[in-house]
């Protein structure tokens, strides 16, 4: 995700904008920033599971015809 292509800036390729971010600054999305030459995420990725709601699997594992990964 980090490439040094311009002096003093790093390139973020997390999205199609492909920002060049100067040290101490954030990209156009304000999600990633350049901290001493390292690309860092500014907003935490949080997954919350409450006692009254359970996470629902995308595809149940107890199906009779399990998915083999082929595109239909």
Account of the 3D structure:
β2 (about 10) and β3 (about 20) form a beta hairpin. The strands form 2 sheets. A 3-stranded antiparallel sheet has the order 1-2-3, with no helix packed on it. The protein has a two-stranded antiparallel ribbon with strand order 4-5. The protein has strands at about 1-5, 10, 20, 30-35, 40. The chain is mainly β and about 70 residues long. The chain has no helices and 5 strands. Helices cover about 0% and strands about 30% of the residues.
Entry keywords:
3-stranded antiparallel sheet; elongated; two-stranded antiparallel sheet; 72 residues; mainly beta
Span between termini: 32 Å
Number of helices: 0
In spatial order, strands of the major sheet run 1-2-3
Spans where pLDDT lies below 50 across 5 or more residues: none
Content-based structural category: mainly beta
Counted beta strands? 5
Helix content, binned percent: under 10%
What is the strand content? 25-35%
Question: SSE layout and pairings?
Answer:
Elements: E1 2-6, E2 9-12, E3 20-22, E4 32-35, E5 38-41
Antiparallel strand pairs: 1-2, 2-3, 4-5
Summarize the structure.
The protein has about 70 residues and is mainly β.
């Amino acid at each position: 995700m980090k490439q040094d292509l311009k002096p003093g800036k790093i390139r973020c390729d997390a999205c199609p904008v492909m920002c060049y971010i100067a040290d101490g600054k954030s990209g156009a999305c304000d999600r990633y920033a350049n901290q001493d030459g390292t690309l860092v995420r500014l907003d935490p990725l949080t997954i919350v599971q409450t006692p009254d709601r359970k996470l629902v699997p995308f595809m149940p594992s107890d199906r009779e015809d399990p998915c083999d990964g082929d595109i239909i």
